[in-house]
Amino acid sequence: MDGILPLWKEKGMTSHDCVFKLRKILGMKRVGHTGTLDPNVEGVLPICLGQATKVAEYVTDSGKEYVATVSIGSATETEDSDGEVIKLDDSPKKIKREEILQALSKLTGEIIQIPPMYSAVKVNGKRLYEYARKGVEVERPERKVTIYEIELLDDRDLFEGEEILFTIRVNCGKGTYIRTLSVQIGEILGYPAHMAKLVRTSSGKFRQQDCLTLREVEELKDSGNLSTYVRPLEDALGEFVFEELDDELYDKIMNGQVLHSHPLLENHEQIVFTKNSKAVAVYRHHPEKKGLMKPEKMFPFNR
């Protein structure tokens, strides 16, 4: 079985747990996820099967959409509701809708984030959470991330209370930490904050309505109907430009030859070459030889 299985990861499971269970359900080893979702987060987790494991990185790097609940009034060591409170402001608060909208506007576009200590980002060969668990503080690298859109989903004009909760929808690029975004919203509003809840509603082309739960996958596998829900690996390449091959170029591409650059590479980083609308290779500019292109991924059995 080759393709993308859009899975709905339930709370309480790691992404690796999902892969482990699917290997048992499907009876196959080549199963991989497309980006870690924390155990306390539910949502869209595209799973790559068979040859499609080669395109996992493209799904991982694609845009994501989340629905998050922001809590204003306390900060935690993990920046979400699982961590211990490290700063508390339980004073009565009144925040106008316009103030929240202004904060969201300031955080839209290309912004700088510092990854949380409890994260999988590597520093000096170790994950940050490994340092955090030992109580060791290390300098964390700043990173640029892109927030395409933030929408306030709460329709109140005035937000009041010792703890203020509101929900946002975030459309963002790769590497964005919604936990950290929640903290940044609080900083602009002048209060400690953390992310109280998070749901990933889309990953690349795969949306919530496309997904199956693990139980549904097992039921469909037993009934022999699962294949109708597995999406072709081309769906993971949707952000790239496609080019159908003639027979002459097809033979060269299938042999993985280094070739003269295709005109489409003047405006695109990658080209997906297809035969009968099936992806057979991804090519990009040769990093060392000007005017030439080389294969980045090959799909010799995707026919």
Q: How would you describe this protein?
A:
It is a single chain. This protein has 7 helices and 20 strands. It is an alpha+beta fold. It is globular. The chain has 3 domains: 3-62 and 204-235, Pseudouridine synthase; 64-201, Pseudouridine synthase (2-Layer Sandwich); 240-298, Archaeosine Trna-guanine Transglycosylase, Chain: A, domain 4 (Roll), CATH 2.30.130.10. The chain has helices spanning 15-26, 56-60, 97-106, 128-133, 178-189, 214-223, 247-254, and strands at 3-9, 31-33, 42-49, 64-72, 74-76, 85-88, 93-96, 109-113, 122-123, 126-127, 143-152, 158-161, 164-172, 193-203, 206-207, 241-244, 259-260, 270-275, 278-285, 292-298.
Fold blueprint:
Elements: E1 3-9, H1 15-26, E2 31-33, E3 42-49, H2 56-60, E4 64-72, E5 74-76, E6 85-88, E7 93-96, H3 97-106, E8 109-113, E9 122-123, E10 126-127, H4 128-133, E11 143-152, E12 158-161, E13 164-172, H5 178-189, E14 193-203, E15 206-207, H6 214-223, E16 241-244, H7 247-254, E17 259-260, E18 270-275, E19 278-285, E20 292-298
Parallel strand pairs: 3-14, 16-18
Antiparallel strand pairs: 1-3, 2-3, 4-13, 4-14, 5-6, 7-12, 8-11, 9-10, 11-13, 14-15, 17-20, 18-19, 19-20
Helix pairs in contact: 1-6
At CATH's second level, what is the architecture of the largest domain? 2-Layer Sandwich
User: Any idea how many domains?
Assistant: 3
- CATH top-level class of the largest domain: Alpha Beta
Strand content: 35-45%
Could you please say which CATH topology of the largest domain applies here?
Answer: Pseudouridine synthase
